[in-house]
Specification:
This protein is α/β, with parallel strands linked by helices and 453 residues long. The protein folds into 2 domains: 186 residues, Aspartate Aminotransferase, domain 1, CATH 3.90.1150.10; 248 residues, Aspartate Aminotransferase, domain 2 (3-Layer(aba) Sandwich), CATH 3.40.640. Helix content is 41%, strand content 16%. The protein is built from 14 helices and 18 strands. A 7-stranded mixed β-sheet has the order 6-14-13-12-11-7-10, with helices on both faces. A 4-stranded mixed β-sheet has the order 3-4-5-17. A 3-stranded antiparallel β-sheet has the order 15-16-18, with helices on one face. Helix 4 crosses helix 10. The longest helix has 25 residues. The two termini are 16 Å apart. The model has no long low-confidence stretch (mean pLDDT 97). Bound molecules: 4'-deoxy-4'-aminopyridoxal-5'-phosphate (PMP). The site of 4'-deoxy-4'-aminopyridoxal-5'-phosphate (PMP) has 14 residues, from helix 5. The site of 4'-deoxy-4'-aminopyridoxal-5'-phosphate has 14 residues, from helix 5. InterPro entries: Aminotrans_3, PyrdxlP-dep_Trfase, PyrdxlP-dep_Trfase_major, PyrdxlP-dep_Trfase_small. This is Glutamate-1-semialdehyde 2,1-aminomutase. One of its GO terms (molecular function) is transaminase activity.
């Protein structure tokens, strides 16, 4: 028997088996409900990726409050997944819930703005900086539209993305490096175009690879997260993000910073905290407290270039849209979140809690002598079942240990802690308590003890 990440494979198999059985045995109501209702969905789930949770069947949530979920079998779970960032500020923050109740009485969608829209726009500028804003419903949409603008104003075709990135269901970003070449990710369903015609994959933290791509003269934009959060977490090395900014300027490409996850960094996102200077700023998920909303903003110079372009393009569809976007419910929730939820005090609590979590997990790893490490970006913490720090997407892919991680996730859930699926990400909200954090650390430690026994 071999080992994975310093753990005997047979121990991982035993833990996985035991925890799956335990999960299922504790959820008779969930099992019965799924048996009667799930078949109406394609593959039994409302979104196909819900099959990728590691549990033998999905948990059915009865309710969520603060940083806690209750499932229909009555299990109360400390929630560190927080809708994988959609609920990073806690479930149904009261100002947002109140805004929803008020708006619910006066209409849900108009195709016209409101006074709250104007308030939200000025709050966006106050929070994130001098951008000209647009509203979308998902960060995927926001990134797609940002890319259209970048191509329109630069008259160039390609986007640089980083190997191992994720920016949502955005075709252009679904490429990878394979033997040094950009290729379409092989897992894409129903893919008919070669995405290497639209994008160039580079390695994160490698300015030389970015400069080579820019030298083709074909690059409209660099689309990146400031920290790679969608593989095992990779931090930018000193000078990397400044280098991207300088190279983008030098070669006439736009720098699009996708803050959808790194909004965990603090007020104004990673951009605000670290003084980045993107041409286009994108953020979604929790920006309106959990109401489906994303925002994307252009620097005034880019907005001006777009105006010139737009004035001369032939009429007709722009390729940017979606009818239900920029609806009054989104604005009510945006204004409530930006003014009352996404506050310096909230971030201070998140930061302190996340530091407590990260150091607790790191101590446990050190005590057990596991060859693992912990990374943190503000309120976002991840344990990685490999030594660190990781430098790029290739190293992150190697560090990812799906079977081991799946067993740990289910084991954590059976000990009352939910973390984000697919990798080992945990979020600390403004309402997450030290007791919850300590329970997660203890559960993690207990599992490591079992794995290494
Ligand atoms: N950008 C980043 C960095 C993301 O992590 C994600 C989703 N995980 C998205 C964009 C897309 O968000 P959504 O699924 O809400 O469209």
């Amino acid at each position: 028997q071999g080992t994975i990440a310093g753990i005997c494979s047979n121990r991982i198999d035993a833990l996985a088996r035991q925890e799956k059985e335990r999960f299922a045995a504790a959820r008779p109501r969930t099992r019965a409900a799924l048996d009667t209702g799930a078949d109406h969905f394609l593959d039994g789930v409302p979104m196909h990726w819900m099959r990728d949770w590691p549990m033998p069947f999905p948990m059915l949530v009865a309710e969520a409050r603060g940083a806690r979920l209750t499932d229909i079998d009555g299990h109360v779970i400390d929630d560190f997944c927080l809708g994988d960032t959609g609920s990073m500020f806690g479930h149904s923050p009261e100002p947002v819930a109140q805004a929803i109740r008020t708006q619910a009485d006066i209409g849900l969608t108009y195709m016209l703005p409101t006074e709250a829209a104007l308030r939200a726009a000025s709050l966006l500028t106050e929070t994130f900086g001098d951008f000209r804003w647009q509203i979308a419903t998902t960060a995927s949409d926001a990134n797609r539209f940002a890319l259209r603008i970048a191509r329109a104003v630069t008259a160039k075709a390609k986007v640089i993305v980083f190997h191992g990135c994720y920016h949502g269901a955005v075709d252009d970003s679904m490429v990878e490096l394979h033997q040094g070449q950009t290729r379409t990710r092989p897992g894409l369903a129903g893919q008919v175009t070669d995405l290497a015609g639209l994008a160039i994959a580079c390695e994160f933290n490698d300015l030389n690879s970015v400069e080579s791509a820019l030298q083709t003269g074909e690059v409209a934009a660099i689309l990146t997260e400031p920290v790679m959060t969608n593989s095992c977490m990779v931090l930018p090395e000193p000078g990397f993000l400044d280098g991207l900014r300088a190279l983008a300027t030098q070669y006439g490409a736009l720098l699009i910073i996708d803050e959808t996850h790194t909004l965990s960094s603090g007020l104004g996102g990673y951009t605000g905290v670290h003084g980045l200077d993107p041409d286009i700023f994108v953020v979604g998920k929790c920006v309106a407290g959990g109401m489906p909303t994303a925002v994307w903003g252009l620097r005034p110079a880019v907005a001006k270039a777009w105006r010139t372009y737009d004035d001369t393009r032939p009429g007709g569809h722009s390729g940017m849209g979606t009818t239900l976007s920029a609806n009054p419910m989104q604005f009510a929730c945006l204004a409530a979140t930006l003014s009352q939820v996404m506050t310096a005090e909230a971030y201070a609590h998140m930061e302190t809690g996340a530091e407590r979590l990260a150091s607790g997990l790191a101590d446990s790893i050190a005590r057990h002598g596991a060859p693992w490490h912990v990374v943190r970006v503000g309120a976002r913490v991840e344990f990685i079942c490999a030594p660190g720090p990781l430098k790029n997407g290739t190293e992150a892919a190697t560090a990812h240990k799906p079977e081991l991680e799946a067993a740990i996730h289910t084991a954590l859930l059976n000990r009352g802690c939910l973390i984000a699926p697919f990798h080992n990400m945990m979020l600390v909200s403004p309402v997450t308590s030290n007791e919850q954090i300590d329970r997660l650390i203890a559960a993690f430690d207990d599992i490591l003890t079992e794995l290494l026994a």
